[in-house]
Amino acid sequence: MKLIKILLAILGIVAVLNIIIVVVFLATFDANEYKGEMAQAAQKETGRELEFDGDVSLTLYPRLGMTLGAMQLKNAPGFGPEPMLEVRDASVSVDLLSLLSMQPQIDQLVLQGLTLRLQKNAEGKTNWDDLVQAAEKQKKSETKSATDSGPGKSANAQSDSGLAFAGSFGGLDVRDVQVLWQDDQSGEHSRITIETLATGRIVKDKAFPVQLNLSVQSEDRLNAMLALQASALLQSQRVQLNSLLLTSTLSGKQLPVDTLDIKLIADIDFDLSGKTLGFSSFSTTVQSRGGVLENSKTVVSADIGLDQTNKILTISALDLQSDLAGESVPNQKISVGFSSRHLEMKLAEHSIDLQDIVLALNDNRFSGHIDVADFARPDVRFELASKQLDVDALLGKADQPEEPVPAQKEVAEDIEIKLPMEMLRKLRLDGRLGIDSLKVQGLHLDNVQIKFSGKDGMIAVKPIAVDLYDGTLRGAVEINAQQAFPAYHVSQQLSGFRIGEFLQDFMQDDMISGEADLTIDLSTRGERLSQLKSGLNGKIGVKVTDGALKGFNLRQKIKVAQAKLKREKEPQFEPEVTDFSSLELSATITDGVLSTDDLDMQAPLIRVGGKGSVNLVDETLNYLVNAKLVATTEGQQGGSADELTGLSIPVLIKGGWLSPEFDVQLDDILKAKLNAKKEKLQQDVARQKEKIAQQLAEEKQKLQAAQQKQLAAKKQQLKKQQELAAAKEKERLKAIEDKKRAELNARKKQKEEEAKQQLQDKLKKLF
């Protein structure tokens, strides 16, 4: 017991002595004497003048500390008289009892009224360039000193990592901090104000609160308010921010909206040893009002992890929901949803993998996966499927047929269709898209199945399979981006679809109706609409059955022509419709000009053929239709056309294809009428010639029969004599025939080899 009492007494005496020493030190120490030394040190390190506007003082109780008072760091030459940095009040203290226990604990660091002025002059020089240069010079000097001291010391310095500290820190109390930015080149002036930056006592392995409030003002371009609060935990190899709540409000002309509100909630875990960063229970809400959007709200939630060592970003349970409303939004309102079970981005390999994704646009939903590897040379693989997609409803066009655009005489603008050629040359693509029900541009399509592929600048969209209007579409689209300008090839086959319903939905005008088959094989190249038109080449085939043509009545045109021939009054107007049982034609397109000469239309009492051209470049046509009456029209809408029956009646269709002119060629009808009489006389002469030829043929046949009878008798007499000679001759002929057959087979084989070689040479040239 005595020993313990003695030890306690000794400790008490030591403590009293320490207190006496500190009191004597404070009573005799004048911190202001060291202001000059601190200013000289600042001048040496920065080349700037450091001024103290207040006294530097020490405090003893209840905490040992230092108060620096007001001070300022001068600006760089040429940037004005105002200091670059000025502080109104700064102080730091140490708990006195912690000194006595030999475990010093720093109390709060207080900083108030700090102003930092950052500037860039018209030549692009900043007022901190000299400080950066001084810091780099100091760094080089320290590196040289560390090298000179030997590798062991340097290695120890590098191995020191983590948040190794002893004791505790009373925290930060920072208030009224302003960072001013002035850019004389752009004329930009901004201000960042930190109203509050405060923490609780910072102790290792013990949570403490963090609070931050700041604002940003950039004239009238951008204004922002930010508030942050969290519970922080510091460990030797880990930093955690729990219950993080960040709220921000932004406004200004730089934003497309009037105000933007952001709210973020998360728990953040940063592992220093494993170099991983995790965001659990991450959720952010972004709301806007005014501007391009009347209002919007977007909510994103996920669990996020970043492995800095392996450079892998993973996002699990990603869910995004966004509601947008306003005049600039299609249909003035849209809801967008996106979710993914697992997203993995390999930063080093420049790849991203999205699994089990769901994309929702209002009532339309897509599901599938997307995998993108190597962003520099993208390798894209995807598979997306949807039950329904109503593009018209998304764009606000549902049940709102567009008004037809009136024909204009002036030349339309030459539209540029420019593709990202470099990206297409690098792109590798393998994807599939399936839509059970699709509505676009008024068209209703079902069972849409499309495959995408691409490599080395060759992009293919094939096969394309679609069911539409009781018919089927099978086809392909290919893009060749290997040359300077893109080249396109389109092949499509439509069969059994109702073309009238198709045109009514697409153009609100069923100018032709019926059940149609259509084949297309076209190619072109270029980056402008005019180039694509003028470079168009290929073939088109059309067949329509049980249909009608709107816009003109061919029978009516013929009746008008008949009335003019007879100098009678024109018949009454009839509906501008021409019915037909079948219509077929094939066309060849060369350099943007479509040509056809095999039009064949079968209509009641009329047969129609035709030939001509359609210029796709200047959108004009020049087509001659030849109609022929095959029976009287008596009883069919009245009148008689017997005088024209059997005649070819030409109708010239020319002009712009949106407003063509129809001209019945009366002169050609008269010529046809005379030609018909001439043809009848020629037919009579032909019949007489045929009768005489038949009689001559009969006489010739009788003479030939008699000659054959005489020859048969002679053959009978000489039969026995010729049998031996015939047998020998047969053998000789057989030998000759065998020889010729062998020679022919040899020649045939030689020609086949030559043809095969020529084919191989051509294939080599093609590929």
Describe the structure concisely for a colleague.
With 767 residues, the protein is an alpha+beta fold.
Any overview of this molecule?
Helices cover 28% and strands 46% of the residues. It is an alpha+beta fold. Strand 2 (57-59) and strand 3 form a beta hairpin. The protein is elongated, with a radius of gyration of 48 Å. Residues 1-29, 153-161, 404-411 and 632-641 have low confidence and may be disordered.
Tell me what portion of residues adopts beta-strand conformation: over 45%
CA radius of gyration is: 48 Å
Number of strands: 34
Shape: elongated
Report the end-to-end length measured between terminal Cα atoms.
106 Å
The main β sheet shows up as:
32 strands, mixed
| Low-pLDDT sequence parts | 1-29, 153-161, 404-411, 632-641
* Oligomeric assembly: single chain
Mean pLDDT: 79
Question: Can you give the helix content as a percent range?
Answer: 25-40%
Structural class based on helices, strands and sheet pairing:
alpha+beta
